[in-house]
């Protein structure tokens, strides 16, 4: 094998997984694609199935298993957090406002990274804070690209409307003025994973006195640029 690591069983397991990358395969298909003996291919596929790295489709063919998606998601989240620090610090420095990164978790959103304004009046959202999905520009971003049924459910009791979210999708950014908290304004933009799905929202927030009642005019471009840098890091995989 060209790609030999010196650990034969791992090399063969990697061959099986690589063969399934192009789609479902029967045992005969696996044998043909990998060059492995039939009993070896079967033994490895079943062992990988035990660890959920391989699964079966409705026809009983081997397919890539759910564990791979879980590991990929975890790797993506780690990459996002590893990149977030310097990106949020830069965003804070260019806007002069506190910057945050939010991910959705069920009916809530969680602040997973932040860079606080160093002095003066500021909107402080500590890392780990759980906020509702019913108000705020980050909630609008995390909701706007959801599939219709989930979007409809999420709008019940929300401080924003379907029309507002349509505008968010068109512009590519969201703003809120006193929506989550009186006196606080914010601007947010979507961070997209490799499949272009929205995986997080990057935001700046601060007092309306500084951000005005049109915070997007002041800060939308800086927030969009920060979101693009995070999206690029996820796509590059480093």
Automatic annotation (TrEMBL):
Keywords: DNA-binding, Transcription, Transcription regulation. PROSITE patterns: HTH_ICLR, ICLR_ED. Residues 7-66 form the HTH iclR-type domain. It holds the Pfam family IclR_C. Residues 67-236 form the IclR-ED domain. GO terms for biological process: negative regulation of DNA-templated transcription. GO terms for molecular function: DNA binding; DNA-binding transcription factor activity. This is IclR family transcriptional regulator.
């Amino acid at each position: 094998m060209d790609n030999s690591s010196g650990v034969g069983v791992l090399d063969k397991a990697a061959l099986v997984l690589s063969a399934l990358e192009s789609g479902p395969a029967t045992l005969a298909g696996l044998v043909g694609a990998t060059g492995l003996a039939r009993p070896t291919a079967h033994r490895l596929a079943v062992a990988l199935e035990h660890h959920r790295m391989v699964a079966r489709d409705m026809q009983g063919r081997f397919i890539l298993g759910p564990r791979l998606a879980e590991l990929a998601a975890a790797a993506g989240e780690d990459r996002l957090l590893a990149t977030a620090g310097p990106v949020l610090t830069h965003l804070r420095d260019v806007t002069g406002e506190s910057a945050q990164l939010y991910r959705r978790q069920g009916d809530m959103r969680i602040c997973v990274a932040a860079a606080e304004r160093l002095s003066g009046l500021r909107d402080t959202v500590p890392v780990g804070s759980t906020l509702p999905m019913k108000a705020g520009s980050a909630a609008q971003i995390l909701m706007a690209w959801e599939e219709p049924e989930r979007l409809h459910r999420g709008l019940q009791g929300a401080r924003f409307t379907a029309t507002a979210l349509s505008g968010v999708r068109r512009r590519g950014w969201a703003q809120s003025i006193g929506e989550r908290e009186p006196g606080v304004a914010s601007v947010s933009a979507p961070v997209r994973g490799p499949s272009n799905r929205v995986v997080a929202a990057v935001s700046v927030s601060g007092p309306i006195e500084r951000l005005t009642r049109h915070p997007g005019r002041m800060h939308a471009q800086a927030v969009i640029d920060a979101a693009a840098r995070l999206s690029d890091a996820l796509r590059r995989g480093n």
